[in-house]
Amino acid sequence: MKLVVGLGNPGPEYETTRHNVGWWVIDHLADVWRFPPWRAAPDARAADGEVDGRRVRLLKPQTFMNLSGDALAPYLQRPFWSVANDLLVVVDDVALPLGTFRFRAKGSAGGHNGLRSVEEALGTMEYARLRIGVGPDAPVPGAVLRDFVLDRFTSDEAAVVKALMPALHAGITTWIADGIVAAMNRHPGRPASPEPPPPEAPPPAAPPPDVPPVVPPPA
């Protein structure tokens, strides 16, 4: 079973915050894949279904961000389930610009409390993750970074994130079918810019004006 976990905080006050962008992705996948309604799972909400013939579970931990790893404990006891091959964690990243994303096969928590909890629960940094950029235009001092990620997206920022959803869906589908290396190679992090429209053909030249012939004066 492939497990796609979106990190976030429960409660309506957090729904539109930058820290909950992982849940946005998970909700989008559940909708696109037409999974059945969410159900209760240990420390989480879950939705199960099939994608391209493979069993997939979407998971939204309900423990608040800094305890996200608690929801993964039951899966570590499953025979034939592999952290390295069967787990993808979807998370916000202030180090990436808004409108970008990055698949990675492993790595440190990078100061993210949710990833730190996941790493502690798994006992390894070697698990796939999808980082979604929520970074500000200008650097944010560390003292106010917590307030920044817990603040709500502006309407323009939310539109940028939502525009990424088709690319994120395509990348996660690749991960399910072919693994994290394929997802990294085929979905490098920023959707391709739309092709510019072909230049318009110049208008046809205007016909020369009718000029009456010059009649010479009589001799």
In short:
By secondary structure, the protein is of the alpha/beta class. It has seven helices and seven strands; from the N terminus they run βαβββαββαβαααα.
Order of H and E elements: EHEEEHEEHEHHHH
**Which stretches are low in confidence, meaning pLDDT under 50 for 5 or more residues running?**
191-195
Distance between the termini: 106 Å
Helix content: 25-40%
Find the structural class using helix and strand composition.
alpha/beta
Global mean pLDDT: 88
- Rg from alpha-carbon coordinates: 26 Å
Word description of this protein:
29% of the residues lie in helices and 21% in strands. Strands 2-3-4-1-5-7-6 form a seven-stranded mixed sheet. Helix 6 packs antiparallel against helix 7. The longest helix has 14 residues. The protein is globular and about 115 Å long. About 2% of the residues have low confidence.
Which labels suit this protein?
alpha/beta; seven-stranded mixed beta sheet; 21% strand; globular
Outline the secondary-structure elements:
Layout: E1 2-6, H1 21-32, E2 39-41, E3 44-51, E4 54-61, H2 83-86, E5 87-97, E6 101-104, H3 113-122, E7 128-135, H4 142-149, H5 155-163, H6 165-178, H7 180-186
Parallel strand pairs: 1-4, 1-5, 5-7
Antiparallel strand pairs: 2-3, 3-4, 6-7
